[in-house]
Amino acid sequence: MVLRTTTSTTLWWLLLPSLLLISSLLLFKKGRRSIISRSSPSSTSSPSPSPTLPLGSLGWPLVGETIEFVSCAYSDRPETFINKRRALYGKVFKSHIFGNPTIVSTDAEVIKFILQSDAKSFVPSYPKSLTELMGKSSILLINGGLQRRIHGLVGAFFKSPHLKAQITRDMEKLVRESMAKWREDEAIFIQDETKNVSIAFQVLVKALISLDPGEEMELLKKQFQEFILGLMSLPIKLPGTQLYRSLRAKKEMVKLVRKLIRSKREEMNGTTTSIVSKDVIDVLLNDSSNQLTDELIADNMIDMMIPGEDSVPVLMTLAINYLSDCPAALKQLTEENLKLKSLKAQLGEPLFWSDYLSSLPFTQTVITETLRMGNIIIGVMRKAMKDVEIKGHLIPKGWSVLAYLRSVHLDDNHYDHPYHFNPWRWQIQDKDVSNNNFTPFGGGQRLCPGVDLARLEASIFLHHFVTQFRYTLIFYLFIYLTSLKDTQNYP
Ligand code: HEM
């Protein structure tokens, strides 16, 4: 069974919704090929042949090839659009999607180069409705020194052992509470359980703004649901439209975050030393550069909640889905987790965050393989700020670039039987998760700062799930639960 990850709001990264096409079409401009400057990953002194525009078709006037791209994106095999052209034109080809002439790359080296490039060569590219919802100072849209600063601060905080310990405690509590409501011999819809119960969302919100479950959290969740719908809506900002409602919801959420910022600032004014950072707001308030305004901090807090609502729950759902198709992997995963659970029970201690990340090696390979096959973020988009030359290809200034990560992850030149869920492939030593052919979290200056958190949360969820329940997949993500009889509890 293949889950269509393309139906998730994850698409906000890749801008697939056909409705957004309308705004893109209004923005349609013919790409120009004026050569202003070039940068090459391999600058040598010997003259090399002039780079050429990759082969491919720009499709129909105005719409280009967008309709075919979008209809494939909503199918079980979104890469069909790409694979067809790749067979005709090669790993890098030109197309015309979402109103822009676009260079599509399925070549791991070219993708690496794009991801590693700075804002002088490529900047993120999103349609107007999304930029409006995210806010102009969102980390996803800003470039240069400011982006690097926020990325560094947030990334370091997300890596801190203190935060990981807090996330582990919060996540375990919520997972236990939520699973306690599941009944034996009951069918549950696993995607709803990981998403609607909002375990990952609440854990992330606590890490971002220290908000605990309660009335304000419930209100925030409600507004966030409204906000997130706008990411997949018509780009029309009139009363009654989704975009309008989503912007209003964002305004309310920003108000709440600004209230928290104000009270933190007041607390800080009373002290001479910087406060110990309990959450991401503290981290950004403690920054001495004076570049981080309250508006910037508030906007970013809301945007950073998106992966908690979407990417992490999708990762958990896909893992359960793939495991139910691979009983040998489920068996090994269950045994590994039960063994650790019983060892911890003997020692009379709980699992620490480091246990989840390093004492459950097979669980980690299951997560890695789920990331490879599931392609939660199927690609990232950029816009070329100047003519760029890479591996003999020309990417003209002003053109969009689609770095299609999914093709690399499902390429049989990189992975044997790429559509086969095989966690054991990651046990072979030369399969290194840090190579060019595995980039589910992007790379370079925009490498996802939430990588450890996502893995930690997925491990905690899987641990509690497989050590408490047996299940059978009955129909498209519906599972039938049977509690394990020998469940031991943690201290
Ligand atoms: C399975 C889960 C996740 C996946 C697959 C994922 C994937 C990605 C990818 C591919 C990018 C790069 C986008 C680009 O280059 O334009 C990214 C960026 C980012 N991710 Fe994640 N992510 C996940 C979870 C998280 C979590 C839990 C957080 C926590 C807040 C997070 C926060 C961010 C942020 C802030 C950025 C922007 C970084 C920047 O532009 O400097 N992500 N993510």
Automatic annotation (TrEMBL):
Kindly give the membrane topology term recorded for this protein. Answer: Single-pass membrane protein
Family annotation (InterPro entries): Cyt_P450, Cyt_P450_CS, Cyt_P450_E_grp-I, Cyt_P450_sf
Top EC class for this record = oxidoreductase
The chemistry this enzyme catalyses reads: (22S,24R)-22-hydroxy-5alpha-ergostan-3-one + reduced [NADPH--hemoprotein reductase] + O2 = 3-dehydro-6-deoxoteasterone + oxidized [NADPH--hemoprotein reductase] + H2O + H(+); 3-epi-6-deoxocathasterone + reduced [NADPH--hemoprotein reductase] + O2 = 6-deoxotyphasterol + oxidized [NADPH--hemoprotein reductase] + H2O + H(+)
Please provide, alphabetically and separated by semicolons, the GO molecular function terms listed in this UniProt record: 22alpha-hydroxysteroid 23-monooxygenase activity; heme binding; iron ion binding; oxidoreductase activity, acting on paired donors, with incorporation or reduction of molecular oxygen, NAD(P)H as one donor, and incorporation of one atom of oxygen
Name of the protein in question: 22alpha-hydroxysteroid 23-monooxygenase
A single cellular component GO annotation:
endoplasmic reticulum membrane
Q: What is its main location?
A: endoplasmic reticulum
Q: Where are the transmembrane segments?
A: 12-28
What EC numbers are recorded for this enzyme? 1.14.14.147
What's a Pfam family this protein contains? Answer: p450
